[in-house]
Predict the structure.
Amino acid sequence: MEVCTDAAALQRSLDDARRRGTTVGLVPTMGALHAGHRSLIDRAVSECGHVAVSIFVNPLQFGSFEDLERYPRSLDADLTVCAGSGVATVFAPGVEEMYPSWPRTSTTVSVAGLGTRWEGASRPGHFDGVTTVVAKLFSIAGACRAYFGEKDFQQLVIVRRMVADMTMPVEVVACPTVRDADGLALSSRNVRLSPDERRAAPVLRRALGAGCDALVRGEDRPGHVVAAMVSVVADEPLARLDYAAVVDAADLTTPPSLSIPVAVRLLVAARIGPVRLIDNCEGPVTEPVLAGGAAGTGVPVGGREGR
Ligand code: PAF
């Protein structure tokens, strides 16, 4: 496995692979690799002849210096994961390699509209930071398949829009969220939860389940679906809700009514103690709505998730 810290070396290695007729897969990460990342890497390795993993804690996407400082870093362990997973190239640049005039930056890639709601409203500038670094990674990597987790659903939608709008030679591949047995979505931030907070954290998943149950019961008022999610989070003393939403999966807006069949996504963000967590799931596929259906049907969260 080649480990490079400069963009030119990554470019060379991926150009060579393409010249040999090999499909290039790119897995952009901020390191602290867990089973969620491993599922992206495994998928990429199964579909591409040459897989590159980038490991870069991108300062542009952090709102506050403290959160950036607290972000877990484990490069040696990450390299072991990559080497054991069939990764061909790891790109682990320093901040000056990615942003030569750091701490000043003059070029920002921004996807209007999509980037300012939900996570974008709570973390102003976050998605500009994400799209700027991802555009740069795509520009270095060249034509490839790029693997992103559905756990960061808004990020996935935004990256897809950027690729389409800019005609980037990248195929974005979405991979299902990986969860612990109790439903908590894997996230690098989970290691910062105390034991009590860790026990409380699956409340996000339960809130999504309550939203899905409401939809399956035939609830077509977005406000009522959201209320079902909110009340689950309100019952958990260690949780502080940031937002709960049911949105059109294509543009992340809240539809005025859910009576017209539309692919919806349920989103939730909450602080568990000091740690901010997000989760989402696909709305259940229930057309037409099951009017009069039984409450709490135990419908799995998300229509296709986990398949
Ligand atoms: O999802 C992440 O880990 C990051 O947002 C990404 C895509 C690697 C950009 O820094």
Notes: The chain has a mean pLDDT of 92. DSSP finds eleven helices and nine strands in the chain. The pocket of pantoate is lined by residues 28-30, 58, 61, 130, 133-134, 152, 155 (CB under 6 Å).
